[in-house]
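About this split. The held-out portion is used to measure sequence recovery: a designer receives only the structure tokens and must propose an amino acid at every position. Recovery is the fraction of positions where the proposal matches the reference. Here is one held-out target exactly as it appears in the evaluation file.
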């Protein structure tokens, strides 16, 4: 990999919660080495980021500016940003046939339960989002702190997949 930022695409089904949390968090902690994006395999019409995802990010001091739900098709076009790493963050998206990504990026799957599926009162729902953000942050901290030798294409895929255990 060069001195350019490492582009990472986080995928989920609707691009409203987990992938949005991952995108915002990696952009926050990426130290310029990483540039994160997110998308969904099938976002609903007029899909927006989940309000609790935005709230938990804001509570953590992470910017939500510019976050919006989008389809993964946007990243398969020749003029789209070249991805170095594509990470699915939900089991549904991981089981789908993904588009062919230009440049054949490294891939990994990091499974997280959908915090928007939980029940309970508003405080319990917000806590589910906070716990998901915290779990993602642990893995993303490890990713951004990989030594330069850990971010070559093959090493990046191996390292990202190893973080599944974290």
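Reference sequence for scoring:
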């Amino acid at each position: 990999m060069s001195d350019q930022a490492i582009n990472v695409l986080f995928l989920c089904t609707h691009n409203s919660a987990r992938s949005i949390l991952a995108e915002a968090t990696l952009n926050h902690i990426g130290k310029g080495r990483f540039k994160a994006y997110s998308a969904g395999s099938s976002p609903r019409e007029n899909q927006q980021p989940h309000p609790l995802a935005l709230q938990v990010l804001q509570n953590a001091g992470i910017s939500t500016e510019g976050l919006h739900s989008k389809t993964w098709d946007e990243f398969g076009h020749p003029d789209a940003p070249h991805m170095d790493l594509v990470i699915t963050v939900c089991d549904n998206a991981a089981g789908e046939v993904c588009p062919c990504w230009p440049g054949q990026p490294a891939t990994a799957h990091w499974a997280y339960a959908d915090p928007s599926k939980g029940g309970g009162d508003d405080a319990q729902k917000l806590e589910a989002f906070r716990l998901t953000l915290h779990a993602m942050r642990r893995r993303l901290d490890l990713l951004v702190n990989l030594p330069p030798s850990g971010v070559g294409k093959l090493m990046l895929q191996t390292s990202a997949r190893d973080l599944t255990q974290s």
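Annotator remark: Residues 122-144 form the longest helix (23 residues).
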